[in-house]
Design brief:
CATH class of the largest domain: Mainly Beta
Number of strands: 37
Structural class: alpha+beta
Distance between the termini: 40 Å
Oligomer: single chain
Number of domains: 3
Number of helices: 14
């Protein structure tokens, strides 16, 4: 085992001294240099000898001690290979294997306070966290993090601005629902002045870096990148003081021992980065003894096209029939079910669903004082006692899961609320979907009952106004490279007609492609039964056959916001290949399918866009040993095929 090179400059680490220790990846391609210069910890990252992350700061400042400066290295562990294997059926890859070199550096203040800096370097990325090992029974408060990520001046970034707290409809922001700024110069201030959300994508020369966090637990707040990034140095920021419940401070407070969330950087070529699972590799393992009321699946959903007024008994019964006809596992009954259906009739719907082999999910407003969203049921989930009674009654009534909406930000109190909701639903097996919510940051691994989270400008926004529809193609072609890389995403895809008076810019085949491109533990489809009944048989067959669980995923071609072509393998061994053109120009896409191991197949039936309006389905020849698939894509067009 390579324990890393170590070098020291200066006399007995006196003034001007520099201590540097190398931590390599298992294959040696990535190399982290951890340095302590005049008591200030920092790091750099190299890939194949090239500097990718320039010297960046480490540490944090507690109310009682500063762990960002005047530190000494009082101990270090040898480099140790750590491995892990876990299953995550609602993600882009069911079975995941993690290998990394771990090294721990013990830092000590002049007053003797201890902080362990833990690095894990895998072949596809770097992660680090801060651990306070001493148990002392005292609440510790973090004032700020010194952690930064610094890039060369010519690097580019693809970043989503954080929305301003308490802005937007009914003061419901932030909900991670802004558009990405694409290929901007590093150092550009955030558009809305509130910072940038995770995951944050960068390119420096031929290397891509996707930054995020995971392992977020009680005691800490969710983080972001700050608004300002002078000279391309991005610093960890904490939430706005308004992102809280009551008078609770937004920042971290905890008893020690305590480990902060992981700061992670997926690093490599674009394929390595978008196929990465670091966001779940480093998350806490799944809680045990969990018997779920359902598994990953697909769902019918009336709300996007029919709205609040159609949350009625007869309409929802019709959508249960629709789900049953399509072989989908779920029907989501959205807002106002309490007033427009009622609990007694909800029991009738769940019983009817059981007959049809369709489980029922119901919507809740999380609301307390943090926003003005009026939809009901609300104010039922504000205390542990009320939640316990409500969740128990739902299970008695045969409900399989809950969609909980309209949270109030990233402060520590909200992170605790999210985890309380998951932990209280878990013993009952209730499935959970968070909307108007934060990025889940690996929680889908820790809490297997969390099947999906919105945290995206999803299809509902396209129903609101034409401006969203106009931006949809590039937005959809952006998400597989950022938001949906690590965590499930409830975008709610596939609209084949309308919606309403809105002129959709994506083609029909592009809409179908999103059913494969976007991964979610529960995939809620926008389209309604009357419209789907008018589509060709091969389209309905595809929406029935597209798997709810992916065994494996591969990136085949594309560029963030311009083109996304991915392959995903289902449990039956078939690879579903889909592509979406995010630009207003026709494109010829050529992708090699040889790496998929598709055997003797020399052709594939491809669903794409017809010469006029509508779908087309035709046979495409796979050329040569590379099994090259050649597709002509319309502007904002797409395709779907299945091969084995």
């Amino acid at each position: 085992m390579n324990n890393g090179k170590r070098w020291v400059l200066g006399f007995l680490l006196g003034a001007g001294a520099l201590l540097a220790i190398e931590v390599p990846s298992p294959d040696g391609r990535l190399l982290v240099d951890v340095t302590v210069r005049d008591g200030a910890p920092a790091y750099t990252v190299r890939r194949g000898g090239d500097l990718v992350v320039e010297e960046s700061r480490l540490g944090l400042v507690r109310a009682d001690a500063d762990f960002s400066r005047d530190l000494r290295l009082s101990g270090e562990s040898p480099v140790k290979l750590v491995t892990d294997r876990y299953e995550l059926p609602g993600s882009k890859r069911r079975v995941n294997v993690y290998r990394a070199n771990r090294k721990t550096f013990r830092m000590e203040t002049a007053g003797g306070q201890l902080m362990d800096l833990v690095f894990e370097v895998s072949d596809g990325g770097v992660a680090f966290r801060y651990v306070f090992p001493k148990e002392d029974g005292t609440v510790r408060e973090v004032k700020e993090e010194a952690t930064t990520f610094r890039f060369a001046p010519d690097a580019k970034a693809w970043l989503q601005p954080m929305s301003v707290a308490k802005s937007g409809w009914a003061h419901t922001n932030p909900s991670y629902e802004e558009y990405h700024e694409r290929e901007i110069a590093v150092g550009t201030p955030s558009t809305l002045g509130a910072g940038w959300v995770f995951p944050a994508l960068f390119r420096t020369r031929d290397t891509w870096v996707l930054i995020s966090e995971t392992g977020l637990d009680r005691g800490y707040c969710a983080s972001r990148l700050r608004h300002e990034s002078p000279l391309g140095e991005y610093r960890i920021g904490f939430p706005d003081v308004r992102e809280t419940i009551g008078e609770e401070p937004v920042g971290p407070r905890f008893f020690t021992p305590y480990a902060t969330p992981w700061r992670l950087l997926a690093i490599g070529d674009l394929k390595t980065v978008v196929e990465s699972t670091l966001g779940t590799d480093l998350a806490q393992p799944a809680i045990k003894h969990l018997k779920l009321a359902g598994e990953p699946g697909k769902a019918a959903w009336s709300w996007p096209k029919l709205g609040d007024r159609q949350t009625t008994f007869e309409v929802q019964k019709r959508f249960i029939d629709y789900a049953a006809d399509m072989g989908w596992a779920y029907c989501l009954i959205d807002a106002l079910w309490d007033a427009q259906i009622g609990e007694a009739k909800l029991r009738d719907l769940t019983a009817y669903g059981r007959e049809k082999k369709v489980a029922v999910l119901v919507w809740y407003n999380s609301n307390g004082s943090w926003n003005d969203a009026p939809q009901t049921p609300k104010n039922r989930l504000l205390t542990p006692e009320s939640r316990k009674a409500e969740f128990a009654r739902l299970r008695e009534n045969g409900v399989a899961g809950v969609k909980i909406d309209f949270f109030g930000g990233d402060g520590r109190a909200f992170i605790g609320l999210y985890q309380s909701l998951l932990e209280e639903c878990a013993p009952l097996g209730l499935l959970v979907n968070f909307h108007g919510a934060t990025l889940p940051r690996g929680w889908a691994r820790t809490y297997p009952n969390l099947l999906t989270v919105e945290a995206v400008r999803g299809y509902e926004f396209i129903t609101f106004d034409q401006a969203n529809a106009d931006r949809a193609p590039a937005h959809m072609a952006m998400l597989p490279f950022t938001r949906n890389v690590f965590d499930p995403m409830d975008f709610t895809p596939v609209c084949l007609e309308g919606p309403g008076k809105i002129k959709r810019r994506t083609t029909l085949a592009a809409e179908l492609a999103t059913a494969v491109l976007f991964t979610s533990g529960i995939q809620h489809y926008v389209e309604i039964p009357e419209v789907l009944a008018k589509q060709p048989d091969y389209v309905r067959s595809a929406l029935k056959a597209i798997p709810a669980v992916w065994e494996e995923s591969r990136f085949l071609a594309g560029y963030p916001g311009k083109l996304a072509v991915f392959a995903r393998r289902g449990p039956d061994g078939r690879w579903w290949v889909a592509g979406l053109n995010g630009e207003a120009m026709a494109k010829t896409v050529e992708v090699s399918l040889a790496e998929l191991g598709i055997g003797k197949t020399n052709s594939a039936m491809v669903i794409t866009d017809g010469p006029a309006v509508g779908f087309d389905c035709r046979e495409a020849v796979l050329d040569g040993a590379a099994k090259t698939l050649r597709i002509e894509l319309k502007p904002f067009g797409g395709f779907v095929t299945a091969v084995r």
